[in-house]
Amino acid sequence: MDYLLFYLPSVIIGILIAMPKGKKWQERNPHKLPFAWGYFNGWSSIAFGPSIFLLFFALIPMGLVRERNFEEILPFILVLSCFYFVLGHFVNQRRRWAWILLIVTDLVAPVRAIINIIYLKNRWSEMAKEADERSKSVALSAPSGGATGEPHRFLEKSKRVALFATAFWTLSVIIFVLLFEPYGRIRDDDIIHMLMVIVLPPALMCSAWFIYDKYVK
User: Fold this and answer.
1) Buried (b) or exposed (e) across 173-192, using 16+ Cβ within 10 A?
2) C-alpha–C-alpha distance, residues 44 and 47, integer Å
3) Distance separating the N- and C-terminal Cα atoms of the chain
4) What is the 3-state secondary structure (H, E, C) of 78-134?
5) Cα–chain center distance at 111
6) Torsion over CA: 40, 43, 48, 51 (sign)
7) 174 CA to centre of own chain
8) Structure confidence at residue 128 as a pLDDT band (50, 70, 90)
9) pLDDT tens digits for 14-40?
10) Whole-model pTM?
11) Is the Cβ–Cβ distance between 43 and 13 less than 8 Å?
């Protein structure tokens, strides 16, 4: 029950924003499926990090949370806040990769993950068409000299895969540390070690791929 307290503020914020947003979406897109639940997922994700920060900060004067404990967990809160802010934004933008990543993070809450899998499945074709329309729009606005007849992307596929894999690895490490507590009581040295675990493997993999792509392939 204590964990529900951390989710409650973001859930309330998500509901308050999702209801009017979902109504406006349906008015603008009467031929498409409703998206209120999508906005709830997006905005509750955006509010998740800040709501935890404010909740911890409010509990310190009450003596329910020690200030030292708050300082120890602050780096995790900041990382999660940035991650879920970006994730929530692209969930609201109906990006399929963001929804897949959201479902992966929801595996610690299986019921919500199952709901989101069904929700995404029913809207996958709509989001695919929207992605094609965005690609065509960007291709038309691109300089004619660089047109190749293929949908234009801001990043090459290999770079998009690298960014997605890095984000997935970062989130996996954070969730593992929070759930299984391998460090026990986290100290400054532990935070540095965790950051190295987050940064070094993706950096080595990206470097290896760069060398392969440029000099070996």
Assistant:
1) bbeebeeeeeeeebeeeebe
2) 5
3) 54
4) HHHHHHHHHHHHHHHCCCHHHHHHHHHHHHHCHHHHHHHHHHHHHHHHHHHHHHHHH
5) 18
6) negative
7) 13
8) very high
9) 999 999 999 999 999 999 999 999 999
10) 0.66
11) yes
